[in-house]
Design a protein that fits this description.
single chain; alpha/beta; Rossmann fold; seven-stranded parallel β-sheet; 30% helix; 24% strand; globular
Length: 141
């Protein structure tokens, strides 16, 4: 069963996702990022090129020829994921097919536009019996 981790209290959801991905990348983890909105995908792509300030987080988009060998993949859809290790949800919906992943990461900001749909997703997962981790990251990741 998919392990689901909710990290809530982020001041800026996109920056918190970028920080989490930088850590995951440095640990050698393979991560799919479900980011269906093109503008958000572009913003995250730019952040991953500039964070941390002394480097970058190796990543590419799902359609890139190097996607199979890149640890972090930005994907606008999840019809054919390249792996089933970890999924980061950067949408406000339940990601399609999330249960095929070993782990699902939900990073929620303090903004109502993120927080309220995040509560609904938390309730959805809890009602279906998924193991949930819940951590406050207001002090940072």
């Amino acid at each position: 069963m998919t392990q689901i981790s909710f990290f809530h209290g982020a001041r800026d959801r996109l920056r918190a996702v970028a920080a989490w991905l930088a850590r995951a990348g440095s640990e050698g983890r393979r991560v799919m990022v479900y980011v269906p909105a093109n503008d958000r995908s572009d913003q995250l792509d730019r952040l991953l090129w500039t964070q941390p300030a002394t480097g970058f987080t190796p990543h590419c988009r799902a359609g890139d020829p190097l996607a199979a060998e890149t640890p972090i993949i930005l994907a606008p859809e999840l019809d054919s994921p390249l792996h089933d290790n970890c999924l980061v949800n950067l949408s406000n919906e339940i990601p399609p097919g999330f249960s095929r992943f070993q782990q699902l990461i939900e990073i929620i900001s303090i903004e109502d536009e993120d927080r309220l749909p995040g509560r609904e997703r938390f309730r959805f997962y809890r009602e279906r019996g998924y193991p949930l981790e819940n951590r406050d990251i207001s002090g940072g990741i």
